């Protein structure tokens, strides 16, 4: 066998071994075993045939090199234009926060808010919501994956967020006279501060009417009060949720990680809002439990991603495995542009989140116009019903999304290919099913959590 033939086979073997090791470290046993078996078969065939037919070693190297090169060019070559069809032509409407499931879940029987909402605004939801509130709440005994010691952890995180989520509201600037600062410098400083505090990505957009809720449903302020927010810009942050914990969804580790990153987002947003205030500009942080805007909609306009089939923001590098927070302000800033990267087209093909959703809340069909948005409309009632049954905030749709894979060379290469063209999306969808399964389930929780009940 020629040295070139041996080197080529060795490089192929190292690439296969690399993906096997990465899959094993990610605890993706199926992917690791399939890669190891397929790679072993390839190497045995490669070196076996090279030994039997040495005259064909050079043509084999040329053929393998040509095949790999052509495949990469075909999958990475930009084909077509990624865009968000319809979102630039449909007039989006403002959403009433009182209609959000989290706001409805807080209504108490006999209160004026309860009587107004179910007596006047949404009487058709009274029976459904009463049944949901009658189920064990998150953290209470009765949920499928409930454990008192684990519940105490995420409850303490959410309780702390609720105690501090108002601290980022600065309706009156700390400085009476605004400092002179150009939009470019303000943007550079704000983004650098957010990243220093732990933000994964930061984007800025003009604050638009459809970003803002129409009425207060929860958090600071009076329930039902019309919302007026005359800030000029919105700064949106993402924070990463750790793959090792999210992969355990819908069990307790996933909700603990969700709460942890909501807390991180709260700290980032409150600090950035305080920074804007000390420059002499009004600002308000929008964080878990105390929003005045629809953060995912603002995140799309700020260039951070696309809204996927599962109803969450999908980012180019970490998929939906992020949590969001935002700051609105009248600090002059340089806005980013939306950056579609083919995620909605991939969602149209994939449907994995819909197949795996235990609450059957994610639609399998095409997008529809909802409040002026062209989107997949998830059933918040069905989603929240499963949350109550499980005793967690589920997150299984996040865990199974192919875009949620950890940021490694192999996964990043696939994500880049999916951004480039539709053919790569088709192939990535099929290979994801082969290597990771259509309905993956991970029960190897970290040893500082209890093992789940009721499996």
Short description:
This protein has 455 residues and is an alpha+beta fold. The chain has helices at residues 3-25, 29-52, 57-76, 101-105, 112-121, 126-133, 148-164, 183-196, 243-246, 252-278, 295-301, 343-350, 352-356, 380-390, 396-400, 409-420, 422-436; strands at residues 169-170, 201-206, 233-240, 283-286, 306-307, 313-314, 322-329, 368-370, 373-375.
Question: Would you give an account of this structure?
Answer:
This protein has 455 residues and is α+β, with helices and mostly antiparallel strands. Among the domains are: 3-76, no CATH class; 140-359 and 391-398, no CATH class. 47% of the residues lie in helices and 8% in strands. The protein contains 17 helices and nine strands. The protein has helices spanning 3-25, 29-52, 57-76, 101-105, 112-121, 126-133, 148-164, 183-196, 243-246, 252-278, 295-301, 343-350, 352-356, 380-390, 396-400, 409-420, 422-436; strands at 169-170, 201-206, 233-240, 283-286, 306-307, 313-314, 322-329, 368-370, 373-375. Strands 1-4-7-3-2 form a five-stranded antiparallel β-sheet, with helices on both faces. Strands 5-6 form a two-stranded antiparallel sheet. Strands 8-9 form a two-stranded antiparallel ribbon. β5 and β6 form a beta hairpin. α7 (148-164) packs parallel to α10. 41% of the residues are buried.
Topology:
Layout: H1 3-25, H2 29-52, H3 57-76, H4 101-105, H5 112-121, H6 126-133, H7 148-164, E1 169-170, H8 183-196, E2 201-206, E3 233-240, H9 243-246, H10 252-278, E4 283-286, H11 295-301, E5 306-307, E6 313-314, E7 322-329, H12 343-350, H13 352-356, E8 368-370, E9 373-375, H14 380-390, H15 396-400, H16 409-420, H17 422-436
Antiparallel strand pairs: 1-4, 2-3, 3-7, 4-7, 5-6, 8-9
Helix pairs in contact: 1-2, 7-10, 12-17, 16-17
